[in-house]
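Bench log, entry 3. Co-assembly request; chain sequences pasted below exactly as received.
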Amino acid sequence: MLNRSNVIYCYDGSFEGLLCCVFESYAQQEIPLDIATSDKCQTMLWPVKEILTNIQNAQRVQNSIAPKIGTAALDLVRRAFLTCFAQKELYILLFLRKGYRYGPAIMNMLTDEVVSPLFKAVKHLNKESELLRGFVRFSVFNNALVAEIEPKNFVLPMLKYHFCERYAEERFLIYDKTHGMGLIYQPYQAAIVPIEALDLPEADEYELEFRELWQLFYNTIEIQGRHNPQCRMSHMPKRYWKYMTEFGTQFRTRCNHDSSKSSSGRSTTSIAQAIWGDQVVEKK
Amino acid sequence: MDIFDKLKILTDAAKYDVACTSSGVSRKSVAGGIGNAAAYGICHSFAGDGRCISLLKVLMTNACVYDCQYCVNRRSNDTQRTAFLPRELADLTINFYRRNYIEGLFLSSGVIKNPDYTCEQMIEALRILREEYHFNGYIHAKAIPGADHALITRLGMLADRMSVNIELPSQNSLKLLAPDKSKHSILAPMGHIQNRIRENSTDLVKYRQAPKFVPAGQSTQMIIGATPETDLQILNLTESLYKRYNLKRVFFSAYMPVAENAFLPSIDTNPPLWREHRLYQADWLLRFYGFAAKELLDQDNQSFNPYLDPKCNWALNHKEYFPLDVNRADYHDLLRVPGIGVTCAKRIVTVRRTAKLSFDGLKKLGVVLKRAKYFITCGGRFSYGLNFKENEILQSLLSPTALRLYQQNYGFLPKPEQLSLFDQPSLVSSQPTQEDILKCLTGQM
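Structure output for the full assembly:
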């Protein structure tokens, strides 16, 4: 059994870079104290070893995973790399070391101190991307679909297949604000690219109309006698609400629209009440 | 009337329909079309009542020739009537779908003119979606009882899932509250759909490209608490529907009072949400846990225990099954332990191939030890320091709400004293007798 050294591996943040750390760990016969990206390494007290990304070494490690530990393990490691788990790099390294030792059986050792946190982190990622498949809200600008999300995990690669298949003939962009990345698609080509910031133009009348129709639907479908905010929140945590159309505040056009129709000219508040129910209006 | 008003009226009229699932069918997108379907179903939002919104749930029209007393759209109800034009509805669906608001369309309808005409209107809307927009998303259509079989077949070719509402759990209640409907008129389309699904499955074996008929199966729903049927009757009906008609789901809807009627609960009654909840729990036990209806309820216990979920109740009544050793017990036996669900049971079976399980390990797998610890052993031993005091067992097995209810009804938690685990008559019998309550009150128990 190897003892842990007090070295910290420093890599470039790419998956290949991490695989090179695994390579280095075997080459030097040591287990690092931690693995961190270059920007975090500089403030640490422990000796830091810079691991340069070497595609050939990374390839050697990657090619060995499927035959030795199984494709499921490779998939797990790829997913684990996308999670927001703080020590994911170190745990991936420890998982792979154990995996080379035990073979595919490692995937059954769910109570293991290394495997269990990794599975938990991947479960969190899966859950979040599953939720976001439903919670992403597009707006149409110039006949292109644009959506913003703020996930904890880096879910874009997990959403890519789903949305590219669903909107195969559309042009769309999903902007991940947390990671500063965007999934861009135009018919039959998709890419995940870094995006610094996204400035969206004002929505046009046509777009606003559908937002309001959706808000109207959302508020009407609730059975008032069964109101249960706790249940809603446990299924749809509040941190997702920020970018969801149904909680938006754009009912300007709806009000204009109503007053133009009914000559009595209902006040904004009463219409807002009709749409949102009493509680919301009181709070405002 | 513009689209805003129509949407409001027709959503308002459709919201009492329970089914909003989008699961059961997996379909790839086609070139030039929009959308696909995922077998696991996707929830797009949750309404203020906590129910999932995955489909645009609307009626084609809320005008209806029938006069069912429990329904908001009954002929005698003084409410504004309107109808979607098929194209209007198709456009709305596509625009919502494009923005990822919804997973597809749930289309039901009041019966306008006659069942055939209503069905034709629905077919036209679905045809525009499927054939003009090449929409591949999910569509749930209600079969209109009384419509021609050819029309129902056509509807089924366009939809993914169909449903016929059984409405009320017995023939008598139907006769009383829905005089225009009968058990036969409801079960006939259900049987027809089932036969077509069966024929279609043999077609698919012969020709891979054969068009699919209702690939996500059919479902139904019934109203709970409007009529005097017991939980036992409802559960037996549910079980036989699953067996006879191969339904994918049976939904229960707690009755929301919508009208003053001598045959119905008064307008200020609360919907029996707890009863609905227990029925859904039992429904899951039937479908995924290998329970039979007769195990959960019988002639002596015709209603569910208000404090305990059906699985816990069953476990407390069958102490001869327990304790189970998690390292040896069969998968199907593990499923019967309160606190162990399908996912956990599968994980346990996987893990114990390579390692012996301990209580710490079980916790990591996601077993709810708080409840499970009274029923399982690891390596022949109960969890360390396990306390069989009634007070603690109650706190562990009852949900916080049920515990509050229990305390309200009995005024106090029973005195802490050493008791055998399963000797709790007040819990096991669902309706405490007068004597029990007296005992409780005098502190004898």
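The domain at 3-296 of chain B is CATH 3.20.20.70 (TIM Barrel). The CA atoms of residues 339 and 368 of chain B lie 5 Å apart.
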